[in-house]
Amino acid sequence: MELHQLTLRYEHLRKRHPRQERALLSSLSESEQLLPIVVVSEAERFVLIDGYKRVRALKRLARDTVRATCWQVAEVEALLLERGLRRGTEDALDQAWLMAELQERFHCSMDELARRFEHSKSWVSRRLALLQVLPATIQEQVRVGTVSAHAAMKYLVPLARANAAAVQQLAAALTALKPTTREVGALYGGWQSGTQRTRELILHSPQIYLQAQAARTPAPPSATQRFLQDLGALAGIARRAHGALEGGLLQQLLESERLEVKEAFARANTELQRLIHRVELEGAAC
Fold it and tell me: Are 101 and 10 spatial neighbours (Cβ–Cβ below 8 Å)?
């Protein structure tokens, strides 16, 4: 069918993943479209249910047509069926967007949503509440891929509950930064434990705060340092075990426990001898 026949009614329900879209664009530029989009008919047009990334890529390539499969079901049934096919890849925000759409467009009650999503009414209510907690600006950032859904759920939702004005300000500052989930977590942790001055820095210049934190974070130990730490730990464990033996531990054990200790010591001794042998080989090579 021709692209102009499509109604892109549910594009706002789909998150965008720039890396995946670039890969898809490259693939479609070199070969034909393999997987058809999914639509349902509506008068003389077709409502796009699945395939928004493919349609965007085809438009960027100046294509006029698209391969499509038309499901012969009601629009609401198609949305729920498509959701069922990608179950496991969605998060709570995806679910909230879809449920809000079903409520608004198809007047689904809480009971109906609970039945359709196979969960309790409280489960439905908690997800719909996310849309009341997260500002529209952050929801849009999640859709376009500026902020990951996981970061929004884990860090920005609690910040929004604590300080709605602060999360709005932070969202605006994050637009150009495109932070990782770990970086959003660092900003949230800094805001929670920081002074008023630290919070102002996070809200106005999150990148500067992250750079300062990175500079303060000690470099990971080198291979040599890790090896020396392991040897130190080994010596410490040996001293502690020797002290237990000097304190008469073996005399206090049952026969079965002594057998256990004997087997464990044999295994430890084998590994220690392997280490000694390897060190001697390396020493000889030097």
Answer: yes
Give the dihedral sign, CA 191/196/199/203: positive
What is the pLDDT at residue 253?
81
* Mean pLDDT, each 10-residue run in order, the chain (286 residues): 94 85 91 91 92 94 94 94 82 88 93 92 88 87 84 88 88 85 91 90 90 77 85 90 85 83 90 88 66
In which residue are the tokens 């891929």 written? 145
Predicted structure pTM score: 0.59
Taking alpha carbons only, the member of 76, 57, 60, 58 closest to residue 1 is 58
What is the reported pLDDT for 217? 65
Measured distance CA(96)–CA(133) in Å, rounded = 12
Q: Which amino acid would we find at residue 283?
A: G
- Nearest Cα to Cα of residue 264 among 244, 280, 247: 244
Q: Which of 124, 125, 192, 123 is nearest to 156 (CA)?
A: 192
> What are the beta bridge partners of residue 65?
2
Evaluate whether 2 touches 40 at the Cβ level (below 8 Å): no
pLDDT (0 to 100) of residue 285: 54
